[in-house]
Amino acid sequence: MSARTRPRAHPDDGTTTYREALREALREALASDDRVFLMGEDVGRYGGCFGVSLGLLEEFGPDRVRDTPLSESAFVGAGIGAALAGMRPVVEIMTVNFSLLALDQILNNAATLRHMSGGQLGVPLVIRMTTGAGRQLAAQHSHSLEGWYAHIPGLRVLAPATVDDARHMLSAALADPDPVLLFEHGSLYNAAGALDPAVHEVDLDRAAVRREGTDVTVVASGGCVPKALEAAEELADTGISAEVVDLRTLRPLDDATIIGSVRHTHRAVMVDEGWRSGSLSAEIESRVCEQAFFELDAPVERVCSAEVPIPYARGLEEAALPQPAGIVAAARRAVS
Hints:
globular, 13 helices, seven-stranded mixed sheet, 14 strands, five-stranded mixed sheet, 37% helix, alpha/beta
């Protein structure tokens, strides 16, 4: 079953959508390096399940943009083999839920081969996949499992939240000698913004402070970043100054930026679309407590998804996910 949503028309205001930024990043990679090719379900003739690769087959041909059979384990394994042979494959998996069918390839092969070969074998592979909910695609297309992959040594895990990061993270990922997983939140594809002409590359080792503040640090990633910024606006109307940290890279985490912000504000709220139990938010909370416990003026708050499979019904889906109102409430508890 395809989860594709038809791309909206290009905004006629000089802005770029997140989807278009990703497509331009792919186009640049394919044009600049003959070793780069794209493979996955429906990436060619259909233009990608979410329209990201639309037009690339016509531009670069079927050797560079390859439709694959519906077998995640097979085509991720083929990508690993191509990377070992000197190519720079970009593998697209339709949704993070389906990546579990390739988990053996990702964990037992891609992430471990450098270690098991004594450093002789690198796997310069980029795996792109859609993550997250908010589009009524039900439980098999909507979960946020980035935290699972951030648990695995040997992988770099990215979560672009802005059009600039969507545009420039891919080139940095392709330059990495080891496997990189790039999670694209489905709710962001139609989000539009102006590309910063001064930005030409992204430092994958650094989180970004998207909004400065003095009273509470709100840490988020991917599709939760716009919600955190919306909550910060609402908090500002009531006199609470929230600093919003966009993680950008989930493995390795940029402890310095996170801890530096908490030492500045003395309070922290973690926003995570994953489930609360065993979540990435729990890992970040632990690091804050380990490294800055005596800087905290209040317990660390967490805003996570309800511990249920993501519902189909819109009202239930919205209730299950982190929302700006929940972030605002958590921040107010922290500063009370």
